[in-house]
């Protein structure tokens, strides 16, 4: 994960580690290397510039404190700022309500259905909940089959209506079913499209209005870099979602989406998914992610 970014940052710091003192010149050089590394990791130029300007300012401010070496000082500053860029503190995940309704949205192929299974598994095994997963994709019968298989693997119930073409009605019926069978979390997997379109947004917005979700999670493939950030903007404008799920972090992803979605849409990343197995889901901790990036 983010291997290239990590290596590039390491090189940037290495050049500084040999220096006895931090100076305007070595700060400027390091900051330039960091900016290039971020841009190559698919961070938008403006954000990369703002980020490194802040690093520079902090380093200048602290250079008189000769307590620690220039290399250590810079690593610390970058780590703090990366953490901040990714949201600072970890975000809360709201499962209040009986049942708590969680709406899952995103483009087709982003990993929505896989995540729906993983989240149900997480809530069942880690939070002691009894979830009901709902296949509200009225266009692709295969999506129902896929969620049925996942639900079987993790041992949770699934709700689907193969003949019903009204996604809002399916969602409401699922909630009724959850109440009748003592399920305390309902996770609704919605239909995805290959690109953001009006009909899709209207459908998810209608489900949102009908079910009053505790959480609306926007699922996005982290491999898509800047596109992920732009898609997040489009979904957030329409849905005002409560959190982001970054998928496919096990792949060869460069990092831009993870680093800048929070900054761009001002919504926290809540989970990261890194594999096809149902257990490969993690709560997102900005500080830990920053630490991993910096090795
Ligand atoms: P949906 O169309 O948004 O519901 O996406 P799916 O859940 O069907 O996922 C699309 C493809 O990505 C499937 O082949 C999944 O197995 C795969 N996938 C989903 N999440 C991950 C992940 O975190 N890592 C990897 N490597 N593959 C994933």
Automatic annotation (TrEMBL):
Keywords on record: Cytoplasm, GTP-binding, Hydrolase, Nucleotide-binding, Ribonucleoprotein, RNA-binding, Signal recognition particle
Q: Where in the cell is it found?
A: Cytoplasm
Q: What Enzyme Commission number(s) appear in the record?
A: 3.6.5.4
Q: Name one GO biological process term.
A: SRP-dependent cotranslational protein targeting to membrane
Query: What are the binding positions for GTP in this chain?
Result: 106-113, 189-193, 247-250
Transmembrane region(s): none
List GO molecular-function terms, semicolon-separated. Answer: 7S RNA binding; GTP binding; GTPase activity
Domain SRP54-type proteins GTP-binding positions: 268-281
GO cellular component terms, semicolon-separated: signal recognition particle
Entry keyword annotation includes RNA-binding: yes
- Record flagged with keyword Ribonucleoprotein: yes
> Catalysed reaction per UniProt?
GTP + H2O = GDP + phosphate + H(+)
Record's subunit section: Part of the signal recognition particle protein translocation system, which is composed of SRP and FtsY.
Q: What is known of its domains?
A: Composed of three domains: the N-terminal N domain, which is responsible for interactions with the ribosome, the central G domain, which binds GTP, and the C-terminal M domain, which binds the RNA and the signal sequence of the RNC.
Similarity comment: family membership: Belongs to the GTP-binding SRP family. SRP54 subfamily.
Report the function annotation for this chain. Answer: Involved in targeting and insertion of nascent membrane proteins into the cytoplasmic membrane. Binds to the hydrophobic signal sequence of the ribosome-nascent chain (RNC) as it emerges from the ribosomes. The SRP-RNC complex is then targeted to the cytoplasmic membrane where it interacts with the SRP receptor FtsY.
Q: What is this protein called?
A: Signal recognition particle protein
Q: Which organism is it from?
A: Deminuibacter soli
Name of the gene this protein is made from: ffh
Q: Covered residues of the complete protein?
A: 1 to 295 of 441
